[in-house]
UniProtKB/TrEMBL annotation, chain A:
UniProt-recorded name of the protein: Dipeptide ABC transporter ATP-binding protein
Keyword Transport: yes
Entry keyword set: ATP-binding, Nucleotide-binding, Transport
Species for this entry: Limobrevibacterium gyesilva
Domain ABC transporter: 20-259
Chief subcellular location: membrane
GO CC aspect terms: plasma membrane
Localization: Cell inner membrane
PROSITE patterns found in the cross-reference section: ABC_TRANSPORTER_1, ABC_TRANSPORTER_2
Mode of membrane association: Peripheral membrane protein
From TrEMBL, chain B:
Source organism of this protein record: Limobrevibacterium gyesilva
Limits of the ABC transporter domain: 14-262
Highest taxon above the source species: Bacteria
Membrane topology: Peripheral membrane protein
Listed name of the protein: ABC transporter ATP-binding protein
Family annotation (CDD domains): ABC_NikE_OppD_transporters
Length: 327, 341
């Protein structure tokens, strides 16, 4: 999938550290290593799933890629153009190319604007269409996401959760972007509605050759929608490969544990559970060596001192683990 | 109503009806719901938001906010005693003692200004005649049972000093401190990460087996249901629409809603051993749950159901038992009979 020409988005060595300030003088006493050296790329019409537990840095990655926060280090390249350090005005044409959908459509839609105005706004801001043309375009967008054009006059609170997410999607595709970043876009939805929204996202991808960065914690959803998957743990990607390899042959012990922890909706399957002990360590004080060694059932002496790097263990299958890479 | 279970029920809920009297109108949150739970059994209640599963739990605990809510009918019998007939003081003796409840977000159910240990010992001293010191010791012992490391130290800490998983463990310790007959768990792992969820579910199941507690597990996650429950109730728009053993429900659901729900969940490859190569569409249930203030007459699922006809729109179907222990409220359940999931 990714071999089709140059990637839409390429991220290299992305870091975001937040200072921790304490005391009267707000002196910096430490750093939160929210994202600590993340690299990936997404091709045209491709979906990269980004999974990990809360606090692993997946949302920070999304915000940094969108240039909503300034990365500490690394580069972000959109269609061959380095956008990491562009100023506000220079960034504007590129903003059209990237759009974001959030988990909770209620807090990301202005409650005082009608759904029609919400979807129309990007058209006006970017001078794509105005007046009658904008009106017609908005109506067409409503139809594309499965809403009735008559609903353009309704306010966000008059929609159900699934419909609100459709409004967010209509807004996101209004400017014909190349990349859509979804930060847990279906997590807040009920099962039967979740399926509708996932199908809509996949249909739009096929029609428009959209690229998705799809952030989620639900592995079954990620498997369904993604072509490739990156697994994050404490600010780093620990495994990165196509979805078939990841789900059928996970190499990193953390991926393995994540998959084994997912409750499977089939009572006939009594799987051997590998329940991980303990909690995720604080990103302020990541453990030395491999960050996962405190919970890893296979940890050896080496894992406690030496941090593994992401290496290709099998063709196209990258893993950051001492067990899987020849010394 | 279900008699195939050899164990006598600890808790029997019959014809429970809870309504909310709001400005938007009468809201039938729970409408004629009946079920029972036996000692040592895990009963799952599943459904989507607004289906009435949480209000069912709150009704059993007599914690429905009133006004606007009110239990208007039915009975909740715990060991032969109808809880709906108790006065508030008697009910306080039941809650946290014979019957406990844990919630989705432990941070909002723990008091932020009291230490974890003092909250647990308070719950113990409310129901048992123990000295302060003895109750404090028991609190530490309970924290140890729920596998909190360094329990004596943790008992002196405040809720915000604990991680989400630890807080839920502390809630479970508090809920089980008086060895209740029934534990109601309302989405106990929904706010937790998947590896922590696995820890908490394992803990609940182990304690439940050790203590013989009956558990009512309320969840929207069909995976959690499949892995923990023995019996399942499916709710839709305030009604129970299906009840079956977990194996039968997943293998051969008889209600079109259950059928659609099971088909719309994306499944992990590790189940079938292969990833589908092309991106397939998920099966959808069209439309959405009707608002409880404006339920259609007849079967509430009819507007979304592919089998719906005039009969469905006219009257809510009676409960039938097409298979032993498998109850369903659908005029057309025979259409799914033998169809599988």
């Amino acid at each position: 999938m990714s071999d089709a020409g140059k990637p839409i988005i390429a991220v290299t060595g992305l870091k975001k550290h937040y200072p921790v300030r304490k005391g009267l003088l707000r002196r910096t006493v430490g750093q939160v290593f929210a994202v600590d050296g993340v690299s990936f790329s997404i091709g045209e019409g491709e979906t990269l799933g980004l999974v990990g537990e809360s606090g692993c840095g997946k949302s920070t990655v999304a915000r940094a890629v969108m240039r909503l926060i300034e990365p500490t280090d690394g580069t972000i390249t959109l269609e061959g153009q380095d956008i990491t350090h562009l100023g506000k005005a220079e960034l504007r044409p590129f903003r059209r190319q990237m759009q974001m959908i959030f988990q909770d459509p209620f807090s990301s839609l202005n409650p005082r604007m009608t759904a029609g105005d919400i979807v129309r706004e990007p058209l006006l801001v970017h001078g794509v269409a105005r007046g009658r043309a904008a009106e017609e375009r908005t109506a067409a967008l409503f139809e594309q996401v499965g809403l009735r054009p008559a609903q353009m006059r309704s306010f966000p609170h008059q929609f159900s959760g699934g419909q609100r997410q459709r409004v967010s999607i209509a807004r996101a595709i209004a400017l014909d972007p190349r990349l859509i970043i979804g930060d847990e876009p279906v997590s807040a939805l009920d099962v039967s509605i979740q399926a509708q929204v996932i199908n809509l996202l996949m249909d739009l991808q096929r029609q428009k050759r959209l690229s998705y960065l799809f952030i989620a914690h639900d592995l079954a959803v990620v498997e369904h929608i993604s072509h490739r998957v990156a697994v994050m743990y404490l600010g780093k990607i620990v495994e990165y490969t196509d979805k078939t390899s990841l789900f059928l042959n996970p190499l990193h012990p953390y991926t393995e544990a994540l998959l084994s922890a997912v409750p499977v909706p089939d009572p006939r399957l009594k799987r051997r559970r590998r329940v991980l002990e303990g909690d995720v360590p604080s990103p302020m004080k990541p453990p030395p060596g491999c960050a996962f060694h405190t919970r890893c059932p296979y940890a050896e002496a080496r894992c406690r001192v030496e941090a593994p790097v992401l290496q290709e263990a099998a063709p196209g299958h990258f893993v950051s683990c001492h067990l899987h890479v020849a010394a | 109503m279900d008699t195939h279970d050899p164990m006598p029920p600890v808790l029997d809920v019959a014809g429970l009806r809870t309504m909310f009297f709001t400005r938007q109108g009468l809201l039938r949150a729970v409408d004629d719901v009946s079920f029972s739970v036996a000692r040592g059994e895990v009963l799952a209640v599943v459904g989507e938001s607004g289906c009435g599963k949480s209000i069912t739990a709150l009704s059993i605990m007599r914690l429905v906010p009133s006004p606007p809510g009110r239990i208007v009918g039915g009975s909740v019998t715990l060991d032969g005693r109808d809880l709906l007939k108790l006065d508030e003081a008697q009910m306080r003796g039941v809650r946290g003692n014979e019957m406990s409840m844990i919630f989705q977000e432990p941070m909002t159910s723990l008091n932020p200004v009291l230490t974890v240990g003092s909250q647990i010992s308070e719950a113990i001293r409310l129901h048992q005649d123990l000295s302060r010191a003895a109750a404090a010791d028991k609190a530490v012992e309970m924290l140890r049972r729920v596998k909190i490391p360094e329990p004596a130290q943790r008992a002196r800490e405040f809720p915000h000093q604990l991680s989400g998983g630890m807080r839920q463990r502390a809630m479970i310790a508090m809920a089980l401190a008086c060895n209740p007959k029934v534990l109601i768990a309302d989405e106990p792992t929904t706010a937790l990460d998947v590896t922590i969820q696995a820890q908490i579910l394992e803990l609940i199941l182990r304690l439940q087996q050790d203590l013989g507690t009956a558990v009512i597990l309320i969840t929207h996650d069909l995976g959690v249901v499949a892995e923990t429950a023995q019996r399942v109730i499916v709710m839709y728009a305030g009604r129970k629409i299906e009840e079956a053993d977990v194996g039968a429900l997943f293998a051969e659901p008889l209600h079109p809603y259950t059928h659609g729900l099971l088909a719309s969940v994306p499944r992990l490859a590790i189940m079938s051993g292969q990833v589908q190569a092309a991106q397939e569409r998920l099966q959808e249930i069209p439309g959405m749950v009707p608002p409880l203030t404006n339920l259609p007459t007849g079967c509430a699922f009819a507007p979304r159901c592919r089998f719906a006809d005039a009969q469905c729109r006219a009257a809510f179907p009676p409960y039938t038992q097409p298979r032993r222990g498998h109850w369903v409220a659908c005029w057309h359940s025979e259409r799914l009979y033998g169809a599988g999931a």
